[in-house]
Design goal:
Layout (H helix, E strand, L loop, with lengths): L3 H4 L8 E5 L9 E4 L5 E3 L15 E15 L6 E10 L2 E14 L2 E4 L3 E4 L3 E8 L6 E8 L2 E10 L2 E4 L3 E2 L5 E8 L6 E8 L4 E10 L2 E4 L3 E15 L6 E8 L5 E10 L2 E22 L6 E8 L5 E10 L2 E14 L1 E7 L6 E7 L7 E9 L2 E4 L3 E2 L8 E5 L6 E8 L5 E8 L12 E5 L8 E6 L3 E2 L10 E4 L5 E2 L7 E6 L5 E3 L4
Antiparallel strand pairs: 1-34, 2-3, 2-33, 4-5, 4-32, 5-6, 6-7, 6-8, 9-10, 10-11, 11-12, 11-13, 14-15, 15-16, 16-17, 16-18, 18-19, 19-20, 20-21, 21-22, 22-23, 23-24, 25-26, 26-27, 27-28, 27-29, 30-31, 31-32, 33-34, 35-39, 36-37, 36-38, 38-39
Length: 497
């Protein structure tokens, strides 16, 4: 009896399709489908660390404060900066947004747009991942927590109407969109004079925002709140806060959304001292692990970070890891979604004349390690924010208050060491049936077909595509499962969207 591979012709299953090659392709090459309909090899390159990676750019020529930056996950190289700034020298200081564009190592900005013509403080910002070019800004204006939807088109921004998230003061905010629940986000804040830690679910429709009922996660002053969703547990997030009702201890709890309701697990202290929390960010590559950054009042306000691990609604912590041995302000941490286990922290080195600094870090289990801090701004700053370009591995923007420019708003590009790939979770299309010259047409077996003519496969084993184009039995990130081996030379390419 013949082997299965002998019975199957090349491109068996009627799934061999002709494509034009973008670049020269060898036989048996995994390829991705480009936007122009051509195919190219799955490749991975190497990019060296460079911080800063370009000249400083100005988004506001006047005094700037409460600065926030966020990249559009749907459009490569596009981001928004939100900030408080003087309107021609007038007071109170208005809320502004400006669209930024990365080109090579340069940053350019469109004309800033006013989103609030009242005294604006406590700004937070998040892009809507389900609507390209749209973002939400939450802020305090007139002692009320308000929100707006902004829309970016090219270098221009338009903003919708203001919507109150709560009827009273709502300071010390955190914001995060809900994964797999289109157009919904949560907003955490300290509500009213009692200071109850509160979360509300917002729903975006066009440029309108509606809110559900408020959910109290902590009765009593819960300052310096931050939130982020667990990528490995549906509708589950972590909220962190400075517990003024418990000696200012740093504390976190797991929240779970069910319909329009939110429930909370027990509250877990990570630092038995005053802890001004500035960020919580999950590492998408490290299971259920997140990192909190804070000022540790029990250790001379040193800049500190700690890893938390979520199990159900329980949280356990590793050791504290100091990244700045001096008084620290605004330590904002962001993981690179395209470089496993890597993050940057932007902060103000307040104990050393307050320059803006950036430090690159890595996570391994519950341990954190850091590189050497790099100054990207002069002394005397007191606002900083960072975010990664979702479409370019290792690339990030730091936005900050620049003392050298009269405390104006400035931004610089950074690059951590990375190995970018053109492979995404959805763009793999098939494997070439023969060598194809660049610009020529040739056939590939696409998903849903049976690819033959391979070698060294293990029958019945599941194979995954790696970011460098190789095919192995180990899953990678992104996790691209290509199919089951039918023999040592053939594989059934699974169809998935």
């Amino acid at each position: 009896m013949s082997n299965l591979s002998e019975l199957l012709p090349a491109g068996a299953g009627g799934k061999n399709v002709s494509f034009v090659a973008s670049g020269t392709l060898p036989n048996g090459q995994a390829v991705v489908l480009k936007a122009d309909g051509t195919v190219e090899a799955v490749v991975q390159t190497s990019v060296a660390e460079s911080i800063p990676a370009g000249a400083q750019s100005t988004f506001n020529a006047a005094i700037s404060s409460f600065i926030q930056v966020a990249f559009d996950p749907s459009t490569s190289g596009k981001f928004v900066v939100a900030y408080r700034g003087a309107n021609g020298g007038a007071t109170p200081e208005y809320g502004f947004v400006a669209a930024g564009t990365v080109s090579g190592t340069s940053i350019s900005f469109g004309t800033p747009v006013v989103f609030s013509s009242a005294g604006t403080t406590q700004i937070v910002l998040a892009y809507n991942p389900d609507s390209a070019g749209k973002f939400v800004v939450a802020y305090d204006a007139g002692s009320v927590a308000k929100t707006i939807v902004g829309t970016v088109s090219g270098t221009s921004i338009t903003v919708g109407s203001e919507y109150a998230a709560t009827s009273t003061w709502g300071g010390y905010k955190g914001i995060s969109f809900i994964p797999n629940t289109p157009h919904k986000f949560i907003l955490s804040f300290l509500k009213g004079s009692a200071g109850d830690g509160t979360i509300v679910i917002g729903t975006v429709s066009g440029t309108s925002i509606s809110y559900g009922s408020e959910s109290v996660f902590h009765s009593g002053a819960a300052r310096w709140t931050a939130v982020d969703f667990n990528p490995n547990a549906v509708n589950t997030f972590v909220v962190g806060y400075y517990d003024a009702a418990n000696s200012d201890y740093g504390t976190c709890a797991v929240g779970t959304i069910s319909g329009t309701s939110i429930s909370y697990g027990s509250h877990y202290v990570f630092n038995t001292a005053g802890s001004k929390i500035y960020s919580i960010d999950f590492d998408h590559a490290a299971g259920n692990k997140f990192v909190v950054t804070y000022e540790d009042a029990g250790n001379s306000a040193y800049g500190t970070a700690i890893v938390g691990t979520v199990s159900g609604t329980a949280i356990s912590y590793g050791s504290e890891y100091v990244f700045n041995s001096g008084a620290t302000k605004y330590p904002i941490l962001q993981f690179d979604p395209n470089t496993l286990g890597k993050f940057v922290i932007g902060y103000i080195d307040d104990g050393n004349s307050a320059p803006v600094k950036v430090i690159v870090g890595s996570i391994s289990g519950t341990a954190l390690s850091y590189g050497s801090p790099i100054s990207i701004g002069s002394n005397g700053s007191n606002y900083v924010s960072v975010d990664f370009n979702k479409a370019q591995a290792g690339q990030f923007v730091v936005a900050y208050r620049n003392p050298d420019g009269g405390h104006n708003g400035a931004a610089r590009l950074g690059q951590i060491a990375a190995s970018p790939t053109n492979l995404t979770a959805t763009n793999f299309i098939g494997i070439t049936d023969s060598a194809i010259s660049s610009g020529a047409a040739g056939k590939a077996t696409i998903k849903g077909g049976i690819k033959t003519g391979l070698s060294s496969l293990t029958p019945n084993a599941i194979y995954y595509l790696q970011t460098d184009g190789t095919i192995t039995t180990a899953s990678a990130s992104p996790a691209v499962r290509i199919g089951k081996a039918l023999s040592s030379t053939s594989i059934n390419l699974e169809y998935n969207s």
